[in-house]
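Same chain as my last thread, 227 residues:
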Amino acid sequence: MKKVSVIIPAYNEAEAIGVTLRAIRERFFCDELIVVDDGSEDETATLAKKWADTVISHPYNLGKGAAVQLGWQRARGDVIMLLDGDLRESAAEAEHLLPPVLADACDMTVAILPPPKQKAGMGLAKGLAHQGIKWLTGFEARAPLSGQRAMRRDLLAHLGKVDKGFGIEVGLTVDALRAGYRIHEVPVLFQHRETGNDWQGYAHRGKEFVAIGRTLCRKWWEGKAWR
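reply #2:
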């Protein structure tokens, strides 16, 4: 029986982390639940300790990619699931990511989330990620920026590391496909915090766009170097 470890990188998620972890504990079985508190300035770590098996706290913010790296290297499961800390009650829907991986129908599943309740931005970051992944690998990703994933541990062990910052999802997809691993996208009814059409929302999407561009350029250069 394969064991499942859930890794949740979290930064200032005190408002949602407790509800998210409780939903996993009460409605979705996993063998191990790990929260990586990435330098939070609120009570994220304290609240997480009530529900998580392990809370890894870092004194300052390293970024999502580094937090994921810390988490999966500590995990003992055969299957590693990555979830965001703001999923709240919908975190229980994570069970739908597991069957294809456990049945060996694929090596990684990626969640396709429902359309946002409110359209925000112009979709530039998602469009760049989609086109970049297609250009580098030929894969038509419907959810190129989804951070909700389940994968075999040996996939992560083979890749060795994940990309930093907002480029983690794109980098993980490209690296896995280039290494010959199989990816399936699965519709899952997750709900999480949405960025709005305000200055903070546009600033966030701008940083995301730049980070994705840098990651794609790096993957192009790595691919060129391998030839």
